[in-house]
User: Fold these one by one.
Assistant:
Number 1:
Amino acid sequence: MTDLIAHLWSALSEAGLPEVMLYLPDGTACRCHWKDTTLIGETRVALLADQDRKIVRIMPIADCKGIGIAPPKGADPMGYRPTVQAKLEGCFGAGGHPHGV
């Protein structure tokens, strides 16, 4: 897996944060769960519900511009950052490298 967003999302999903906001090339954002992705060949795509157009968009994750983690309802995003950071460090270590590398 060479795509940074897919790599981060996969690790976050395994760490218990499978639902993210994907920032799309057109400037919009869409919430998506890891279970709503699939591999097509070597490309991971997200299946996104587009309510305005009443379609399912098939978006290569590599084309997304960013990824976000929504805090639980009622939680302050600033206060939730340490939780996300701890999950990332649990996946990649404090230096940003996967454990065992």
Note: Strands lie at 19-23, 29-33, 37-40, 43-50, 55-60, 66-68.
Number 2:
Amino acid sequence: MKDKDHNKYDISYRQMITRMPKLYKFMSKYKWLILGLAFFDVISNLLITLPPLIIQYCVDEVIPLKDFSSMNIFFFVITMMYLVYSGLFLGHIYIRWYLQYNIRKDIREKLFNALLLKSPVFYAKRVSGEITSRMNNDVGSVSYLASDAFFDFFNAFLKVAFSLTMLVYLSWKITLAIVILILLQYFFVTIIMNFFKKYRKRTSEKWGRLLGYLQEVLSNIKIVMAFGNENYEASRHLRKSREYIKDSI
């Protein structure tokens, strides 16, 4: 039962697309801001892709003709592209920060309100530290998926699309070699991530138990001091911390 409950909170990048309908409930409130940010991404990737093509055209066509006026125009255009890209990049960072923290706030409010309606049996079967850990880590993970991870995925897709288009234009052989290398890298990274997945799950459980222990000791600190158990609790904390660190490494 415990593993089943934990799997509900075990969110990975691979599940982002399949869980998008659930994430959309938190993203829909900011849909126009998200669409604007997606438009920023398209323009930014276009601005960062065009300069190499313009430079290649200048080297192949303009410089041999010694057309300095055209070179100055192209230089001005490239400079303006990078300036616009810098402005879009700064705006992109601010909007993503705004989205992530507001989505996180919305998720925490809904989760806290849902926890208030749970029965005492629910809390009797769970350690308070585990609930706190999930409110902190899992809410952060979900808000990250609904904001930063979503745009990282979208931005990566745009970069791949624009880059492949430019590479195919320059040389289809180089493009084929790069695609093969990317697929091989994805294959090996997937194997490694699946191997470490079970350790990440165990580490999360250890962290929840450690938080539960800390809350238990701090809430009963007067009793601990009354019986002179400070050294005993310190050794327990050291042992639990070492277990957590050992599983984390």
Note: The radius of gyration is 26 Å.
Number 3:
Amino acid sequence: GEVVRILRDADTTFGNLEVNAFDIRSFNGHPQAEYGGAYHLSLPEVGQDLKAMGFNILGRANNHSFDWGVEGMRETSRVLDQNGIIHAGVGENLAQAGAARFFETTRG
């Protein structure tokens, strides 16, 4: 609809990803109780959906980044990378989590 058209037509569409994305049937991790007990989860196909809606960069530094531990963070990164979506705010260490990520457009 109209919202998707607006997202697609923008030079850059930034979002905040508050979910982990992986196939629970083959996932090797488990929920992390110390991260609040709200275990938001999406199928890996969400990467294709976000790309199709026009999202090209996502922030992930939020209270749900580690709901499924390091493995959930890694799997979500893989899903986003496979779909060409730039993401920032998490990583294997503090340097990676704090690293700047950039999205280049024809306008700069």
Note: The first helix runs from residue 2 to 9.
Number 4:
Amino acid sequence: MKINKAEFVTSAVAPDHYPVHELPEVALAGRSNVGKSSFINKICQRKALARTSSKPGKTQTLNFFNINDEIMFVDVPGYGYAKVSKTEREKWGVMMEQYLTSQEALRGVVLLVDIRHDPTGDDVTMYNFLKHYEIPVIVVATKLDKIKKSQRQKHEAAVKRKLQFDPSDRFVAFSAETAEGKDEAWKAIYALITEGE
């Protein structure tokens, strides 16, 4: 997939701040420090489109990115970061729920989990939330380069088991370091935005 345009559009915390456009939207969700920004940067072939940070909880707004005038990526705040106040976490929760359940342009969610570990309770809650609201989901298991090739199947099976993964959903193992899984991720995203057209 050739990326000719990848640009930050705006940040928003409420529907009246969402950008006006006619592109299909794909949200990116995951716990803090799972590698959402690295995923966006790698598949968009940009070094700093989305800001990466060693500090979890950096994304605190809905961040909209126009990709090739074809798709709008929406980076949502990472969940599960303990050092953010309870009030702040609740605020993010309301903002995300409002966006995910009411945005007509939303075609689906890329849910990022760390392939090295079992999904957290928050990961399971998010996956169940998406299934409950019948929001199409792609599970992207990041940090693939951090495990041995011989261990991949075992880790993938563990992630799917913990999530009670629906086989009708798409699963992509991905590495932001090596770009492995990049083409598969794009195929899954394109399938998401073209279904039901």
Note: Strands lie at 6-12, 25-30, 62-67, 71-75, 106-114, 137-142, 170-173.
